């Protein structure tokens, strides 16, 4: 059967077995794909299965679920506008190319040693932050930040990278945040999965912004398994004898590792098989 004679629903179903990025590419190839690519059948498959349970606990999330005119609109809204969940302690979004979950834990969702002592840390609202509060380091010698999250909040069978989201005060000299080693440890269900040493490098990090006014330090990688809810623990520790000041912490972000998916072409072959036509050639994308 010629591709033009296939029902739009059949093409939409086949598109749903690719990726959001592939759908965009195919839409540019042919008006047949462009028409099918707006179907809820396509975009519902790209949305996480537990999306409603995640968003329904958030006022903003509930409003988005009720107001989105289509699954495609819902998808791209979550890609471009992270939603605060868990009483504003976390933000939830989707990676645009893959539809995989991204989660950022706010500073209030972290365990910061001496974080509740005003002589060491101060909390305030920052207009550049998506969260109600950020934490600024006044002065400590023992700098320790811990985080915990269940992997059910993340996409399964995915290699993730965790980042500390931070910046340095322009009003305070960033003493002690130079090249001394910072220890990072990550554990899944108590078993160590990643250890590494990083550096604050305060002076070198000026200008290395993410585009939202914040900087990030890569903490490590971990892999989430299908059907297994594990507890991820992250520890960032600088116990050097230097007193440290001027660090501003927004939170810890966890997102799919860039370049780790590698499933796009196999999905294209799968779509070719589903359609039963020899018209989709890998060299076209």
From TrEMBL:
CDD domains membership: F-box_AtSKIP3-like (cd22162)
The F-box domain, residue ranges: 1-46
InterPro entries per the UniProt record, alphabetical: F-box-like_dom_sf, F-box_dom, PP2-like
First and last residue of the signal peptide: none
Pfam name, any one: PP2
Protein name (database record): F-box domain-containing protein
């Amino acid at each position: 059967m010629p591709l033009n004679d296939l029902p739009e629903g059949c093409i939409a179903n086949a598109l749903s077995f690719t990726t959001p990025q592939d759908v965009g590419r195919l839409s540019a190839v042919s008006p047949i794909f462009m028409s099918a690519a707006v179907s809820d059948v396509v975009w519902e498959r790209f949305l996480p299965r537990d999306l409603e349970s995640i968003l329904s606990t958030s006022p903003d999330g509930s409003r988005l679920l009720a107001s989105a005119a289509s699954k495609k609109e819902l998808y791209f809204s979550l890609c471009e506008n992270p939603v605060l969940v868990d009483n504003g302690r976390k933000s939830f979004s989707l990676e645009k190319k893959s539809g995989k979950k991204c989660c950022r834990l706010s500073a209030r969702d972290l365990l910061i040693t001496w974080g509740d002592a005003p002589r060491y840390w101060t909390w305030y609202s920052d207009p550049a932050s998506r969260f109600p509060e950020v934490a600024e380091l006044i002065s400590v010698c023992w700098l320790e930040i811990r985080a915990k999250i269940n992997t059910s909040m993340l996409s399964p069978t995915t290699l993730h990278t965790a980042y500390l989201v931070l910046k340095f005060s322009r009003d305070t000299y960033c003493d002690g945040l130079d090249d001394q080693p910072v220890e990072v440890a990550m554990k899944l269900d108590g078993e160590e999965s990643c250890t590494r040493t990083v550096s604050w490098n305060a002076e070198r990090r000026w200008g290395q912004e993410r585009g939202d006014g914040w900087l990030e330090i890569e903490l490590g990688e971990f892999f989430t398994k299908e059907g297994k809810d594990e507890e991820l623990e992250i520890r960032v520790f600088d116990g050097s004898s230097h007193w440290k000041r001027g660090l501003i912490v927004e939170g810890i972000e966890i997102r799919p590792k860039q370049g780790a998916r590698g499933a796009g072409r196999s999905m294209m072959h799968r779509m070719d098989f589903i359609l039963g036509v020899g018209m989709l050639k890998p060299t076209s994308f």
